[in-house]
Amino acid/amide ABC transporter ATP-binding protein 1, HAAT family (Desulfomonile tiedjei), 238 residues
Amino acid sequence: MLKGSGITKRFGGLVALSDVDFEVNRGEIVGLIGPNGSGKTTLFNVISGFYKPDGGEVSLLGERISGKPPHRIAAMGIGRTFQIVRPLMDLTLVENVAIAVLYGRMGISESTEAKDKAYEILRFTGLAAKAYSLPGQLVLEDRKRLEVARALGSRPEIILLDEVFAGLNRKEILGAIELTFRIRDEYRVTIFMIEHVMKAIMESCSRIMALHHGVKIADGKPEEVANHPEVIRAYLGA
Ligand code: ADP
């Protein structure tokens, strides 16, 4: 579904991504790990069009997307959440999601219909009871769920999740893992996620890729990658 080959991204003299190849197949939940500064967010920014790669290309369902602007890439079916959640603070939850629906790929242009759809997505993400609250009233877990709901509003083929488990307690993490599976199974959305919470990665991902200093050092089953000597060395800072 999503494929990158030879992705290189430099910031001045710093090589944030170096010749990275990756593939995410339809229906997979793929994790992206690596110590801070290893290039994970840069890779998501390249995929979603916020950064242009200096080398290599990304394609979605066989069509080249690198070089296109973010709104075109979103319209082609790539949704994403941000580490720093940023809903529209003056709008209710249902309005926040309805905007994503109106600008998304569902072909809905009428606001009542968009709100109905938004409410359905809020129910799916466990936020129906707070549909008419403002984002500022939400606890962290619900802010993360709202971010996911907004990404789902555009009806993506694949969703890039950026640390949606960060800061959650054990019980909330279990709920978020369950939501991840339901996104794949009920909404049929493929998932590529940056994550530091090991439990979440190990339990929800079918495959994990690890980056270190902008280089892909491992790609495989969760247990294989977690026990990979280079991955262990990267995390120990060696
Ligand atoms: P991660 O998400 O794995 O923590 P990042 O992709 O954010 O890593 O960063 C990779 C490297 O690229 C870091 O050294 C970071 O400082 C650098 N970097 C990221 N974005 C920019 C930018 N816009 N300008 C300059 N350097 C950047």
Observations:
- The two ends are 35 Å apart (CA to CA).
- The pocket of adenosine-5'-diphosphate is lined by residues 11, 14, 16, 34, 36-42 (CB under 6 Å).
